[in-house]
Design goal:
- 2 copies of one chain form a homodimer.
- Chain A is α+β, with helices and mostly antiparallel strands.
- The first copy, chain A, has a single domain, classed as 3-Layer(aba) Sandwich (NADH Oxidase).
- Chain A is 38% helix and 19% strand.
- The first copy, chain A, has 7 helices and 5 strands, in the order ααβααβαβαβαβ.
- Chain A has a 4-stranded antiparallel β-sheet, sandwiched between helices.
- The relative contact order of chain A is 0.23.
- The model of chain A has no long low-confidence stretch (mean pLDDT 96).
- At the A-B interface, helix 1, helix 2, strand 1, helix 5 and strand 4 of A face helix 1, helix 2, strand 1, helix 5 and strand 4 of B.
């Protein structure tokens, strides 16, 4: 893998919602999860767990979000769970999982691939848990659609640093 | 800034708890917050807010954690808040803040500087909010000690990918 300017990588990464009909090799997914698993967590408890869905299994999950088209177009859907048995503090665990997801998003972006971190799908967390027959210790907290980007990416802005910083 | 191998950067970054008595330029801190503010968030709500503390102001906060020595040795302490007025979903906001913090940690590590993401200090969130006379809309969710690393860094391990991935 090539080297990147980390600040440029961070600033340029955006949600990708349209994908080409191309496959992403499973090795790339494994490397993405490899990036994810090295995130920091409180007491190094690593509360994150993953499930990778493709093809029909993935498309079946599309019905649980109004952004189903994104799920269908993406080559893979990575489901992220909080493992309650590894949890020690819900608030910190969620932040750690955010860090873990960001590792994944940045790594995938560095390869020229696209991701969309889906939040709205959590509204149907109960139905999805049933669909997947999840053990009760797993709480569904995020889904990442992943694939080869198609077309232009919408460049969202950010608040100015002066509006985010308190003295 | 030089270019980096993102996977290597992610895998090698660890908490730094011992720092040299050297100053980190304010421009570096600004760049770190710049990295932070480009994180993704649900509805792009950007619920993160920051406060940078150094010298006596920083050392005063050391009393609120049993890891006060880390706070004292670090050149800067970056306090991270969740802005309740920008919030739309507490769970997703926390994950977004985790992503935002990870951007910061990775960027700082790419410069050869060290960070320690402090969690235990949150036990005294109420006292710290009072000390800082925080407006009630800000919830204190994390503190990052930052400085020039001293000595060896403890290399914590991670669970194997096969133990994190469900089929």
């Amino acid at each position: 893998m090539g080297k990147v300017d980390i600040l440029k990588l961070i600033k340029e990464r955006r949600s990708v919602r349209k994908f080409q009909d191309k496959e992403v090799p499973m090795q790339t997914i494994k490397n993405s999860l490899e990036a994810a698993r090295w995130a920091p967590s409180g007491l190094n408890n690593q509360p994150w767990r993953f499930m990778v869905k493709s093809k029909q299994e993935k498309d079946k999950l599309a019905q649980y979000t109004k952004f189903g088209q994104v799920v269908k177009e993406a080559d893979k859907l990575i489901l992220v769970f909080l493992d309650k048995k590894s949890s020690y503090n819900y608030q910190k665990d969620l932040m750690a999982i955010g860090a873990c997801i960001q590792n994944m998003l940045l790594y995938v972006h560095s390869l020229g691939l696209g991701t969309c971190w889906l939040g709205e799908i959590l509204n149907q967390a109960k139905e999805i848990s049933r669909e997947l027959q999840l053990p009760s210790q797993l709480e569904f907290v995020a889904a990442i659609a992943l694939g080869v980007p198609a077309g232009e990416v919408k460049l969202t802005g950010r608040r100015l640093l002066k509006d985010l910083t308190l003295v």
